Amino acid sequence: MLMRTDPFRELDRLTQQVFGTPGTWSKPAAMPMDAYRAGDEFVVCFDLPGVSPDAIELDIERNVLTVKAERRPLPGGDDVQMQVSERPLGVFSRQLFLGESLDTDHISADYEAGVLTLRIPVAEKAKPRRIEIGGAQSDRKEIQA
């Protein structure tokens, strides 16, 4: 997989927010998120109000997590006339580069009330542990690793 950075990506996201240009699959719009650590897991929350759960894609490849979602127009017919439409439609995307200290094999995802929540556990090898020091039987001690 070829990985590249786009120095203008943040400027493109700001422009899309200001001018309201819809995201496409080739140029997705911004997706707001919060991330924090809670105990032995990292929690990432993405704001996706109005997005159907079947329109969300989660992929991980080589510790790069990609979230894509599409907000589609509401179903309508000949008798439906839109009065106000302020929520942006289109494709939204975000990529996260996950460190080696995270267990990417056990990521869980929940979608409730327009918020996609990912829980990524810290890998066992990255958790602090005690190491026993050998030596004379009476002088056995433990140190914090």
Structural class: mainly beta
Oligomer: single chain
- Describe the largest sheet: 4 strands, antiparallel
Shape from CA axes? elongated
Query: Strand fraction band?
Result: 35-45%
Mean pLDDT: 79
Secondary-structure element string? HEEEEEEEEE
The total of helices stands at: 1
Low-confidence stretches: none
What gap, in angstroms, lies between the N and C termini? 36 Å
Helical amount? under 10%
Domain SHSP: 24-136
Organism: Amycolatopsis melonis
Protein name: Hsp20/alpha crystallin family protein
InterPro entries: A-crystallin/Hsp20_dom, HSP20-like_chaperone, Small_HSP
Description:
The model has no long low-confidence stretch (mean pLDDT 79). Helix content is 8%, strand content 38%. The protein is mainly beta. The strands form 3 sheets. The protein has a 4-stranded antiparallel sheet, with no helix packed on it. It is elongated and about 85 Å long. Strand 8 (130-133) and strand 9 form a beta hairpin. It is built from 1 helix and 9 strands, in the order αβββββββββ.
Task: List the main descriptive attributes of the protein structure presented here.
145 residues; mainly beta; four-stranded antiparallel β-sheet; three-stranded antiparallel β-sheet; 1 helix; 9 strands; 38% strand; Hsp20/alpha crystallin family protein; Small_HSP; HSP20-like_chaperone; A-crystallin/Hsp20_dom
